[in-house]
Design brief:
This protein is α/β, with parallel strands linked by helices. It has two domains: 149 residues, HAD superfamily/HAD-like (Rossmann fold, 3-Layer(aba) Sandwich); 71 residues, no CATH class. Helices cover 26% and strands 27% of the residues. The protein has an eight-stranded mixed beta sheet, sandwiched between helices. Strands 7-6-8-10-9 form a five-stranded antiparallel beta sheet, with helices on one face. The longest helix has 12 residues.
Length: 228
């Protein structure tokens, strides 16, 4: 059994499209007892609408590690979630909203502008600060910043895509190296922790290239060469 953990946007979902060959190769890998999962900064709800009928992942690490689900008889079951402290979150929103657009992502599949819009018992998975620049994290005692194209995702300081990978390895009692592939800054945390790290040929960001041992054209090439 092998486990492949793949980023979503820019890795298997590029310019709003899937490659049919990628989808077929992923299904073949799973049919051969391989475990295929998606690791993404997106919420699970945002991801689900795009992959329904195309990819049936064995696990999903969403919100950069804050929300984890596993496939249980073709239904996704939540096995972990880490939400944010609302009082401290208000501080970070007040600090950055003067200069940058901000959105709040909740556990009820909502994207809202203000904590005042939260419903009773609604929790926050992550905060998005929309900026093309790297920003100094003035709240590093509680929150971590995860840069992607045009946005900085703010989550709990102890959470990352890599902590999600560690959870999945324990869940499956898997003591080997996971095969990981990604294309952007927010993938570095889990790419650098495995010797089986991949990025795509089109990627030009040096910080991503430097932590990856291999480069491939697409997920199909990865599976065909290394996933068997």
């Amino acid at each position: 059994m092998k486990i492949i953990a793949s980023d979503f946007d820019g890795t298997i979902y590029i310019d709003g499209e899937f490659k049919e060959n990628d989808l077929e190769t992923i299904r073949s890998f799973q049919a051969s007892s391989g475990i295929f999962g998606i690791v993404t900064g997106r919420s699970y709800f945002s991801l689900k609408s795009l992959i329904d009928g195309k990819i049936n992942p064995d696990f999903v690490i969403a919100n950069n590690g804050s929300h984890i689900l596993v496939n249980n008889k073709k239904e996704m079951r939540e096995v972990y979630k880490k939400t944010l402290d609302k009082d401290r979150l208000r501080e970070i929103i007040d600090y950055y909203k003067k200069d940058y657009p901000i959105k709040i992502f909740t556990d009820l599949d909502r994207k809202i502008d203000s904590l005042d819009d939260l419903k009773k018992d609604e929790e926050v998975y992550s905060l998005a600060i929309y900026s093309d620049d790297f920003l100094d994290n003035s709240f590093g005692d509680l929150f971590s910043f995860h840069k992607s194209i045009g946005v900085i995702d703010v989550i709990d300081k102890d959470i990352s895509k890599q902590t999600g990978i560690e959870f999945i390895k324990k869940f499956y009692s898997y003591d080997k190296d996971i095969i990981a592939i990604g294309d952007d800054y927010n993938d570095i945390s889990f790419l650098k922790e495995t010797p089986l790290s991949f990025t795509l040929n089109y990627v030009t960001e040096k910080s991503v290239i430097d932590v990856c041992k291999y480069r491939v054209e697409d997920i199909s090439e990865l599976i065909e060469k290394y996933g068997q």
